[in-house]
Design brief:
Blueprint (H helix, E strand, L loop, with lengths): L4 E11 L5 E11 L9 H33 L9
Antiparallel strand pairs: 1-2
């Protein structure tokens, strides 16, 4: 069997023989290779996808904030009396 590395992926709860819960038990998976950053290629890909989604969301929030600032600077706050 290939030695590989053990990578912690989660913490789980297990039930003891007496029925009580044993919490925060680490769950490991065996990975064959870690890249230069110390994670698997799949983990790195997931981190990049999450980062891209977060960047898009923050860009949207910033552009909405800037649009609201500009609207306030123009004196048009959307509450003009008729």
């Amino acid at each position: 069997m290939d030695k590989g590395f053990l990578q912690k992926v989660a913490y789980i709860g297990l039930r003891n023989a007496d029925g009580s819960m044993m919490l925060n038990v680490p769950l490991y998976v065996r990975v064959s290779e870690l890249n230069k950053n110390g994670v698997t290629d799949m983990q790195e890909e997931v981190m990049h996808r999450i980062s891209e989604a977060m960047i898009r969301r923050h860009e949207k929030q910033i552009s909405e904030y800037m649009a609201n600032l500009k609207k306030g600077a123009d004196g048009n706050d959307g509450n003009d009396a008729v």
